[in-house]
Amino acid sequence: MDIVTLAEVAGNLNVVGYGLAAIGPGIGLGILIGKTIESTARQPELGGRLQTLMFLGLAFVEVLALLGFVAAFIFQ
Fold first, then answer.
1. Residue 8: pLDDT band by 50, 70, 90 thresholds?
2. Which of 7, 25, 31, 40 has the maximum number of C-beta atoms within 10 A of its C-beta?
3. Is the pLDDT of residue 19 over 80?
4. In this structure, how many other beta carbons lie within 10 angstroms of the beta carbon of residue 61?
5. Per the structure, how many domains does the chain have?
6. Is the dihedral of CA 60, 64, 65, 71 positive or negative?
7. Phi and psi of 75, rounded to 5°?
8. Where is this site: Reversibly protonated during proton transport?
C-alpha cells in the first residue's frame, strides 16, 4: 500500500469513529429528554425547574459529541 491509500483509510476511519462517538450522546439526549417529559407529566408544577435542569444536562451531553468531533481531527 502506498501513502495515499493509507491516508484515505485513516480518513475514513476518522469518519466512522466520529459516527460511533455520536451514538452515545444521541442515546443520552433521548433518555434525558424522555425522563424530563415523564417527570413533567407526573408533577407539572416542577416543569420550569425540570426544563432548566434538562438544558443544563443537554449541554453536558453535547460536550461529549463535540469531544468526539475534535478527537477525530486531533488523532489523524
1. low
2. 25
3. no
4. 19
5. 1
6. positive
7. -95, 40
8. 62
Give the long-range contacts of residues 19-25, CB within 8 A, separation 24 or more.
21/64, 21/65, 21/67, 21/68, 21/69, 21/71, 21/72, 22/65, 22/68, 24/64, 25/61, 25/62, 25/64, 25/65, 25/68
Over 60: is that where the pLDDT of 2 sits? no
pTM of the model: 0.71
Spatial distance between the Cα atoms of 76 and 7, rounded to a whole number of angstroms:
9
What is the amino acid identity at position 1?
Answer: M
Alpha carbon separation from 72 to 18, 25, 45 (Å, rounded): 6, 16, 43
- Domain range spanning residue 21? 3-74
